[in-house]
């Protein structure tokens, strides 16, 4: 399905590059019956997870401090290509790529134990004692490809665009923890990986409210997707002598719900041959439910979390053209 979506993007791009050759049926030389458009979005988002534990500083079973990963804003591009007909019906493809990572380093003080995330019934949690260090890192990668169709309508002063389509997505979480002794020599290491690949329907609505004849418009966009696919999880330890111990390796069918919202402002004007050029500034938030680590093999006496939900929040700065 992903190859089909990428093929549709290539087809739409070819249509845009050859827009001058698209004419109304039976009317050679007349203006194009469809209007190609393209938008390039510069998106900056930071992740917020249900639980984003990097390490637990434990003094006793009742005295401990949780240290979280400190993710910064990450740049991610989004490309939208499509064309709209004279009736207001349009088709488009959207592709978006996001990745972010964070690394935290901690040294255990006297009487303190550093405990990494995810304890397994077979091997417990990875831990570092006094004067030892624990370096943990986390990486998130997301790729979405949409193929959509919609209809433009006008309601009083509002321009409304609504429709649906299909989304293919692939995403992964990676967590690793490396123990170093007091001399800085690497000791045991734990790696956790989780990946989800899914496909499903999308619904979207977009609202545009021009402000008089200023070229400025208010924007509000929403999108919902329900994705079904394959979730894979792996976990293994690597000892200081390079011996690898597999802790978990399983896969299951899974579903992910996704909600998106954008609020912002647009400035547009007609240029050259009547093409509409526009720039946008948008606040953006996304919620991915049931997307994350799924490791149901911890015992009740060991630390157990689940990265079930992922939130992304930030802004985008976009430029586009309607030919």
Automatic annotation (TrEMBL):
Keywords of the record? Signal
Where does the signal peptide begin and end? 1-19
Pfam families, per database record: Legionella_OMP
Q: What is this protein called?
A: Legionella pneumophila major outer membrane protein
**Source species of the chain:** Novipirellula herctigrandis
Lineage start: Bacteria, Pseudomonadati, Planctomycetota, Planctomycetia, Pirellulales
């Amino acid at each position: 399905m992903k190859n089909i979506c990428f093929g549709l993007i290539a087809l739409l791009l070819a249509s845009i590059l050859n827009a001058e050759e698209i004419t109304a049926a039976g009317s050679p030389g007349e203006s194009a019956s469809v209007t190609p458009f393209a938008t390039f979005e510069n998106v900056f988002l930071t992740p917020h997870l249900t639980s984003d534990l990097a390490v637990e500083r434990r003094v006793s079973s009742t005295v401990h401090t949780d240290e979280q990963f400190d993710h910064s804003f990450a740049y991610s591009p989004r490309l939208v290509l499509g064309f709209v007909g004279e009736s207001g019906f349009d088709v488009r493809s959207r592709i978006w790529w996001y990745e972010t990572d964070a690394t935290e380093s901690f040294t255990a003080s006297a009487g303190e134990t550093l405990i990494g995330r995810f304890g397994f019934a077979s091997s417990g949690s990875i831990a570092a004692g006094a004067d030892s260090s624990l370096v943990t890192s986390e990486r998130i990668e997301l790729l979405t490809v949409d193929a959509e169709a919609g209809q433009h309508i006008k309601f009083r002063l509002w321009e409304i665009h609504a429709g649906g389509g299909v989304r293919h997505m692939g995403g992964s979480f990676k967590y690793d923890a490396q123990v170093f002794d007091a001399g800085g020599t690497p000791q045991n290491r734990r790696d956790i990986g989780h990946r989800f690949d899914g496909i499903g329907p999308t619904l979207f609505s977009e609202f545009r409210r021009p402000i008089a004849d200023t070229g400025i418009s208010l924007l509000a966009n929403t999108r919902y997707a329900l994705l079904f696919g394959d979730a894979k999880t792996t976990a293994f330890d690597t000892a200081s002598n390079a011996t690898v111990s597999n802790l978990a390796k399983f896969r299951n069918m899974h579903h992910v719900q996704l909600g998106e919202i954008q609020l912002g402002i647009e400035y547009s004007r007609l240029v050259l041959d009547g093409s509409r050029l526009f720039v946008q500034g948008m606040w953006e938030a996304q919620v991915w439910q049931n997307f994350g680590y799924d490791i149901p093999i911890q015992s009740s006496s060991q630390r157990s979390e689940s990265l079930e939900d992922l939130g992304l929040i930030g802004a985008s700065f976009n430029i586009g053209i309607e030919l």
